[in-house]
Amino acid sequence: MPGPALVTRVRSALVRTRASGAVLIALLLGLWQYSAYHWVSSPNWPPVTQIARALGAGFASGELPEVFGSSLYRMLSGYALGVCAALVVGLLMASVRVVHAALEPTVELLRPIPVPAIIPPLILLLGVDDAMKIFIVAFSAFFPVLVNTIAGVRAVDHVAVDAARTFGVGRMRTALRVVLPASMPYILAGMRVSLALALIVTVVAEMIAGSAGVGYFIMTMQYAMRASDMYAAIVLLAALGYGLNRGFLAIERRVLHWYHL
Predict the structure, then answer these.
(1) What pTM did the predictor assign?
(2) What are the tens digits of pLDDT across the range 223-234?
(3) More confident of the two residues 13 and 250
(4) Residue 77: inside a domain
(5) Residues 19 and 130 in one domain
(6) Which of 1, 189, 206, 242 has its CA 20 to 30 A from that of 181?
(7) What's the domain count of the chain?
């Protein structure tokens, strides 16, 4: 029997690392595997091993890399456009009262609109090609970054801004060299939220009006009753989302090294 000290050390190691999370995922996958053979008798609930084989076959044929590559292109293009636009508009709204007064009602009118509700009119205006999907991703990524940018700029210490003005630093340079860096914790928090939204919206847009991409692939596999391929795409989608989040956190730690001390 292991001693209490050893049990305590193992428990502390699990808490400090992500090992406990990996153990939980492994247990859930094991439960899924067991349920597919003993509790649920349905071709729509395949065992994990069958999904893993479908995942391997999809990579071997090149189908899954192509599907996910096209979705990543739409997602990252829309995300970049939305973030850049939100930074410019957010800095202006937070710094110039006239701009804030003019744009704030429009922003608050558009921000609560559910994304699926604006896809049909966008199809009429932009069609069902990449332009519509990139626009809808940019639209979704815009608002979290905008709101956080405004909050971040308003949270900047006025002493730092006044000091820059005292030394004769111009307004634009103050915004870029003082206000923007001080607002980065807020801005990056909004960008992280928008990153997840961009992935979700890309898949939803491809499901509603797509002829390629992950969303279209999942719907096609559902209609074709190829449950293993459908679940393989969903599992890979979850892994992609996790990887994007971890990658963003790594970049955030490097950019905000002074903030996480």
Answers:
(1) 0.85
(2) 999 999 999 999
(3) 250
(4) yes
(5) no
(6) 242
(7) 2
In whole angstroms, what is the distance from residue 124 CA to residue 132 CA?
Answer: 10
Domain that holds residue 188: 48-255
Question: Once rounded to an integer, what is the mean pLDDT over residues 24-43?
Answer: 87
- DSSP annotation string for 159-182: HHHHHHHHTT--HHHHIIIIIHHH
Amino acid making up residue 100: H
d(CA 133, CA 204) in angstroms, rounded, equals 9
Look up residue 148 and give its two tokens: 């956080």
pLDDT band, residue 11 (cuts 50/70/90): low
Cα 202 to Cα 134: distance, rounded to the nearest angstrom: 8
Would you say residue 261 lies in a domain? Answer: no
Q: What is the pLDDT of residue 162?
A: 66
One domain, residues 118 and 158: yes
CA-derived radius of gyration, the chain: 23
pLDDT at 96: 85
DSSP 46-73: --HHHHHHHHHHHHHHTHHHHHHHHHHH
Helix (H, G, I), strand (E, B) or coil at 190: helix
